[in-house]
Amino acid sequence: MCIRDRYYTTMGINKELIGDVDNAIRYHSKAMEIWRGVNEAYLVVLALMHLYTLHRSVNNLTQAQEVGTVLNRIMDSEEFKNLSPELLFKDSDKRLSLAKELTNALQQVESSIAITAPQRSQLVADDLPNDFWKQALRLRLLNALKATKQLATGPRGSNQRERENLEMAARQIEETLKAMDMEQNELVLEKLRNSEYAKEASNIVRGNINRLRKFIVGLVYSHAWSRLRQVHIRHQKTLALESRKEDPNSFFGRAYTLATGGDYIIKVNLTSNSRGKKFLQLNRADGVLRWASSEDSIHSSKSRMYILNEVKGILYGKHTSTFKKDYNKKLEPWLCISLELHNRSLDLYFKEEQINPWYYVLSSEIKRQNPRAFAPSFGKFLWRKLQFLLFQFYLGPQIKTKKGKLSFAKAVVAYKFASANDY
Fold first, then answer.
1. Which residues of the chain have pLDDT under 70?
2. Burial 193-227 (b: 16+ CB within 10 A, else e)
């Protein structure tokens, strides 16, 4: 996000907080134009929500309806699938009300220390009144005076010489404060204003005001901002993956070519102690997985079909009751995949060259069709596969924990120990 974006958004929310609706609409509209130009859809949504709320607050119902139509059209797009505006902007009215209360409180604090210029109610630290440096310097000197007196009456004050020095420093600070209030000579005031100490004092107060301003701004739509940012990042990752799937020479492209073209896989039967070779094929456009006894019958009435958005999850390894049967005891766990359906599982056993591409495609498509499904990433699948292989070929069945399982970390440690003993 560029500086202009931040400026327009910040100014829009600041104007919104103090009730300057016309200028708030103007700033949010400018921010939205910039974000549209750089294709930042999630930030466009945030600006539209501001505009929708502002138009409704002043009964501009026609404009509110137009903005709401655009907002709903964007929220219905693939990028924001399964993310409703109601969930996204939950409690936003309460947050806005609280932010307005904080803004009013800040205005009262500013008035109490004589920072009364109208620009200060906008919470913009660059538009401070001309005597702001004097107020900031006075505040810093008062803090220094308080600290000096505390030191003089504390443990350091037990030393008479040091106590006298601290008391003298306190008197000098008090005299400086009186002289600054009484001074009328413009040359003296100019020199004092340009001193490093006065500049540091001004910067400290500016920093505190800016931090408070950012806190108030973030308070209003922090929840929506976070959710939209997550959606945006997820969408960018999806686009990157989609581009790799289109490359026929990449692993991802070859995996989808294999799955959509179909392949013969061993299906492990649930109701009997048997296994059979079946032709498995993915229809990505329809979100459907089919299997049949042969390739010729994959589109006939003899084929079985599973809708991927109804799949609850994908399990890697021998987790289901089907795979745990004695009959399937010799099947290697790193070649086993189960799809969890509503009332049963589809248990599949792959060849070494099949398992990686099929797991990648099935997990990706199940997660795409059903975001709530349990589908560990391809990276987690590879780590789990490595654990299976370490345990099977290097560690042996005699190395087990009390629960009968071996974590990946323990498997690596045990492997290194076993390798060291071989030399």
1. 1-7, 17, 42, 78-79, 81-132, 156-158, 183-184, 206, 209-246, 394-423
2. beeeebeebbeebeeebeebbeebbebbbebbeeb
Question: Tokens representing 356?
Answer: 């990686």
Is the separation of the CB atoms in 373 and 367 below 8 Å?
A: yes
Distance from C-alpha of 374 to C-alpha of 340, rounded to nearest angstrom: 9
**Residues 25-39 pLDDT 10s:** 888 888 888 877 777
Residue that the structure tokens 């000096």 belong to: 148
Q: Are strands 345-349 and 336-340 parallel, antiparallel or unpaired?
A: antiparallel
- With the C-alpha atoms ordered 244, 248, 254, 259, is the resulting torsion angle positive or negative? positive
- Spatial distance between the Cα atoms of 253 and 359, rounded to a whole number of angstroms: 14
For residue 23, count CB atoms less than 10 angstroms from its CB and return exposed for 0-12, middle for 13-18, buried for 19 or more: middle
- Give pLDDT tens digits for 234-263: 666 666 666 666 677 788 888 998 999 999
- Which tokens hold the place of 240? 């990157």
